[in-house]
Amino acid sequence: MISDFVKGRRKLDYPEAVQRGITLHRAIDEFTDRHEASREAKLVFRPAYRLYAGAIVDVIYDHFLAADEQEFTESSLHGFSGGVYQTLHQHLDLLPERFARMYPYMKEQNWLFHYRSRWGTEKSLGGLVRRSRYLTESDTAFRLFEEHYQLLGDCYRHFWAEIKPFAAAYLAGLTDPEKKP
């Protein structure tokens, strides 16, 4: 959860388990950026958002994951979200300052659960704009999301089929070097 807020070697300031999580997150980000389905999805947003197209696709993938009935029912997503907030709350002392300021809103508004809805995704895109330095609006991103919903869903499904086993193998390699992919 905090990887995007921990830059460079600052990850070494954290306990080993958190370092592994940051390393895994970075590997997932790299895999995502290189994946052909992600490159295709970014084409939808690149004309309007240029370098931020990848961040927008991350939000869109979060929507499709939260709405993916093969991964989460509404009830199991609710439970998963609550578990994540509980874990974060138990480790408030480890949260980077910027994440710690955002966390109460994330929990109160249940961002993780609300990714499931188009409304929640629209709100999340707005939050991306508020946290970014160079974006000024998210209405275009949401319109493009709606207009290209089927294509973006197809990109997610193609991507998810490959990222899930990659992440599992990578995590296994982080916890047991003999299993390193």
Could you outline the blueprint of secondary structure elements for this entry?
Elements: H1 16-34, H2 36-49, H3 53-67, H4 74-90, H5 97-108, H6 111-114, H7 118-131, H8 139-147, H9 149-175
Helix pairs in contact: 1-9, 2-3, 2-8, 2-9, 3-7, 3-9
**Count of discrete structural domains:** 1
Q: Globular, elongated, flat, extended or rod-shaped: what is the shape?
A: globular
Unreliable spans are none
Rg, nearest Å = 16 Å
Q: Count every helix, treating DSSP H or I runs of 4 or more residues as helices.
A: 9
User: What summary fits the major beta sheet?
Assistant: none
Q: How many runs of DSSP E, i.e. beta strands? A: 0
Query: Which structural category fits the helices and strands?
Result: mainly alpha
Mean pLDDT: 95
Helix content: over 70%
Quote the distance from N terminus to C terminus.
23 Å
Determine the strand fraction and express it as a percent band: under 5%
Secondary-structure element string: HHHHHHHHH
